[in-house]
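Need Serine protease's 3D structure for a figure. Predict it.
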Amino acid sequence: MAQGRRARRVLAVGSVLALVAFVGGAAAAGDDPTHPLSEGAAKNAPASGVARSAALYPRDGRRDLTGDDRARYPGAGVLWCRRPDGVPQKAAAAWLIGTASTVMLNAHNFRNRQLETTRPVGDCYFQIGGRNYDFVAESLRLGVAADATRLHITDDWALLRLARPADAPRQPVPGAAPDLSTGDLALPVTLVAPGGHQNYRGDSSLEACTLRRIDPPTEGGIRRARHDCNDGYGGSGSGVFDESGRLVAMQSASLSMNSRHAFDIEFHYGSALLIEGELLDALRQAQREDTTPQAPSQAPSQAP
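Structure prediction for Serine protease:
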């Protein structure tokens, strides 16, 4: 059983390869210059018109982010990276969190499944509140262990420091790990995708959806949350919030990105990593070590 769970977990990261590039809303499904699909997978990828209009599930409750949403979910930003020709393109969601200089995002923006470097940090920048901020390239901290040979859902996180503090509200570091039991559940959540999805019409989106299962802890003491939130290319790094507005997880990848059919807990679901274990420890450490004067972070408002 343990081997089966691990096999499924590694398989899930295969979809990470499809999530990194969001080529200005113009790429077909499977078009990922950073992580190209295999020849067989490319043949099975749908045409551009299909990929850009289809949600993962028959139900699609996504809507555009509003100003009120951004106030309720502070810190929502976008990772932009330059193509080989120098043209910037959206890559993924990213979060200003804890301090005005700390950004949380997915490790797969810079590493593939075999942990090979796919793009340098210097090719990317963080955008929030209509402003662009460069990263300190050598500040990259990856969630993978020093002896790791593969990237998994539960270590698919990274932290970066900005070259200058961002003039924007930030997401507070959770005071504690999510109080969620391992196993099946039905927890109402909201997926906040500041970078949008290729299969959604807007530049950003928000959707009410459900966490369906919490897997046992694996890498770094972190658990995977399986959910039924719609996802699309460019949606990695999106935040998963509970009903009180508290950040509980970060989106990593979804299975069967080119398929639209009913949620299936084993074969058609989204994967997010909970904000706990080594990730939560790293966020707290970044907060302790940051000496930049900080404006108060914006605590989440309570649900009515």
